[in-house]
Automatic annotation (TrEMBL):
GO terms for cellular component: cytoplasm. Mg(2+) binds at residue 249. It comes from Engelhardtia mirabilis. GO terms for biological process: phenylalanyl-tRNA aminoacylation. This is Phenylalanine--tRNA ligase alpha subunit. Residues 104-317 form the Aminoacyl-transfer RNA synthetases class-II family profile domain. Its EC number is 6.1.1.20. It catalyses: tRNA(Phe) + L-phenylalanine + ATP = L-phenylalanyl-tRNA(Phe) + AMP + diphosphate + H(+).
C-alpha cells in the first residue's frame, strides 16, 4: 500500500492530483480510516501490530505529500527562472519618495523658532463663530471685511464663517489661559475674493499673541525682528508704519527688507526693497475685556499685550522667489518636487 501511494504521489503533476490522493488515503472514509476501523474484527494478538503499521502508513503518506508539494514548488520556480523574459540583473523599479510641502517645512521652522522663545503653539477651528472671527475682535457689524464678497458664510443667519484670519484664536487663547502667556497659532484662512497671482481663497497665517504686565511696542518689534533674522539667518532690516485693525491700538504695518534681493529692489518686492510682512499692534482693551470676560482670576485693567498676524504663503514666496500663490494649493508635482 505504502509503495503504491508513494509512486502515485511522485507521479502527480499538480496540486489537484495531490489533493485527490490525499482525500483518498487520509479523509474520514478513506483507506487508512478503513484500516483502523477494521481493527476490532482482528484477533486480539494481531491488533497492536496492525494498528502500528496503519499509523506508520498514515505518516508515510503525509510525508510523501509534503515532499510532493515541495517538489512542485521547486519545479514552478525553476520554470519561471528558465522562461526567457525573466532577467534577474535588471534594476528594480525606483521608489518615489514624497517630500514635505514647502508651507509645512517653513511652518515647522516658524514653530520651532517661536517655541525656542517660550511660545506655545495653538490650534483653532477653521469653521468659526462670527463671535470669535469678528465680534470679540471689535470688528463692527458694518465693517467691509464682513461683506459677502470677502467672507464665506456657512449659514443664512451668518453665525458661522470660514475664518478669514487666525485672530479668533487670540480670543480662544485668552478664554482658557492665564496671563502672562505667549502663543502662536498657525493655520488656514479663507477669503471670498477674486483669485490672481497674489490672492488665493485659501491661504495660511500665523497669529501671535503675548499678554502680560508691562508688554510694550518695543517687545513686539524686537520679537518680530529677532524672528526674521533667525529665519533668514542674517540681519533683516524692519520698519513700522501706522496701520489700522479694529482689534489693536495702536496698530501697525510691519515691513521687512526684501530677503530676495537684500533691499536693492527686485520683482519680489516690486522694486521698493521692502515687503509688507504683517499687521500687528497692541491688543485693544476691548479685545482683552472680551477674551477675559467673567474671569475673577484675571485683572484685565493691569494687562497689556501685543498681537501680530503674518501670511505664511507670502513668507515662503519671498524666501524661494515663488511668484504665484496659486502654486501652493495647486497640487502640481513639478512645483512641489522642487522643495
Ligand atoms: N488679522 C489681521 C489680518 O488678517 C492681521 C493682524 C493680526 C493684525 C494681529 C493685527 C494684529 O490682516
Amino acid at each position: 500500500l505504502q509503495r503504491t501511494a508513494a509512486e502515485r504521489i511522485a507521479r502527480a503533476s499538480d496540486e489537484e492530483g495531490l489533493r485527490a490522493i490525499e482525500r483518498e488515503y487520509l479523509d474520514k472514509g478513506g483507506v487508512i480510516a478503513g484500516l483502523l476501523a477494521s481493527i476490532p474484527t482482528l484477533e486480539p494478538t494481531e491488533r497492536r501490530e496492525f494498528g502500528q503499521s496503519a499509523n506508520g502508513l498514515k505518516q508515510a503518506v503525509q510525508a510523501a505529500l509534503a515532499d510532493g508539494r515541495a517538489a512542485l514548488a521547486a519545479g514552478r520556480l525553476a520554470a519561471e527562472l528558465a522562461a526567457d523574459d525573466f532577467d534577474p540583473t535588471l534594476p528594480g523599479a525606483r521608489l518615489e519618495r514624497g517630500s514635505l510641502h514647502p508651507l509645512t517645512q517653513v511652518r515647522r521652522e516658524v514653530e520651532d523658532l517661536f517655541s525656542s522663545m517660550g511660545y506655545q503653539v495653538l490650534d483653532g477651528p477653521e469653521v468659526e463663530l462670527d463671535y470669535y472671527n469678528f465680534q470679540a475682535l471689535n470688528i463692527p457689524v458694518d465693517h467691509p471685511s464682513r461683506e459677502e464678497q470677502d467672507t464665506f458664510y456657512c449659514d443664512r443667519e451668518h453665525t458661522l464663517v470660514m475664518r478669514t484670519q487666525t485672530s479668533p484664536v487670540q480670543i480662544r487663547a485668552m478664554e482658557r489661559m492665564t496671563p502672562p502667556f505667549r502663543v502662536i497659532a498657525p493655520g488656514r484662512v479663507f477669503r471670498n475674493e477674486q483669485q490672481d497671482a497674489t490672492h488665493e481663497h485659501t491661504f495660511h497665517q500665523v497669529e501671535g499673541l503675548v499678554v502680560g504686565h508691562g508688554v510694550q511696542v518695543g517687545h513686539l518689534t524686537w520679537t518680530l525682528k529677532n524672528f526674521l533674522t533667525q529665519l533668514f539667518d542674517r540681519e533683516v532690516p524692519v520698519r513700522l508704519r501706522p496701520g489700522f485693525f479694529p482689534f489693536v491700538e495702536p496698530g501697525f504695518e510691519f515691513d521687512m527688507g526684501c530677503a530676495f534681493c537684500g533691499g536693492k529692489g527686485c520683482r519680489v518686492c516690486k522694486g521698493s526693497g521692502w515687503i509688507e510682512f504683517c499687521g500687528c499692534g497692541m491688543v485693544h482693551p476691548r479685545v482683552l475685556e472680551a477674551g477675559f470676560a467673567g474671569r475673577d482670576d484675571v485683572d484685565v485693567s493691569a494687562l497689556t499685550g501685543f498681537a501680530f498676524g503674518f501670511g505664511l504663503d507670502r513668507l515662503v514666496m519671498t524666501r524661494y522667489g515663488v511668484d504665484d500663490i496659486r502654486q501652493f494649493m495647486g497640487g502640481d508635482l513639478r512645483f512641489l518636487e522642487q522643495f
